[in-house]
Please model this.
Amino acid sequence: MDTRLLHTFTTLARTGGFTSAAAELHLAQSTVTVHIRTLERELGTRLFDRLPTGTLLTESGRRLLEGAEEVLDAVARLRAGGREGDGAVRGRVRVGTPESLCATRLPGVIAALRTRHPEVDVDLHAAGTAECVAGLRGGRLDLALLLEDEADFPEITAEPVAHEPLALVCAPGHPLAARKRPAGWARLARESFFLLEQGCSYSDALERRLLALPGTGPRLTRFGSVDAARSCAAAGLGLTLLPLTTVAEYLEQGRLTRVPGPGFADVPVRLARHRRRWTAPATEAFATELVRQLGT
Model:
């Protein structure tokens, strides 16, 4: 069986549409159609239901998918073994990561990786937990970093490799900055907060805690950008809760100050990967360097 057909099949199963699959594979949509029809003819069964909104795997398609991924993984292992006969590690690693880690922790990891394995390239994709997990399941990502206290996802392993301290901060001129006594939850619940978008575990936890207080109505604004939340707090508009690494420079410059208030537990940094999928040498090299750098 032509493995190109299996590659097209798994891509269509992941993307759910001929147009999306063709774009990802850099093929004409008609070629994707021919590949799927050829595979269905060879196997003597229908693999997809064609719907106005896209495609859905049939029962036969679902049974084929796991086996097709195993075959493609085996082919990738063979190719990697042939390329790396000289002992060098080569390849491209696709990593999903929260924006805060992408901007602060990972540049050092990539620099160290490039020193040890100069022929390994890393593509970083800033994404939240849900998008990272979907990317791992769909094969769009090789690894992902999750900032989660708990991470129980089918088909995904997620092991803690580090911890990220959090900081509740505001502008030096904010009324809470001058308090000598820590502000309690009831006082914080009267403030404005600029938090990261839904799906950020520590932002979601803070929002739940604030909204659970009776008779309070904090003003909550959610952003998809660390810089936006940090800048609003630095402008004196309210408070934000962010990883300490993302506000350290602002604290040193006096543009932000830590709010005396309740403590926040460090958030685990979890390295996630697909449970069944083969890990290429380049991917394993990145994972090893990540643990080495974040563990120091």
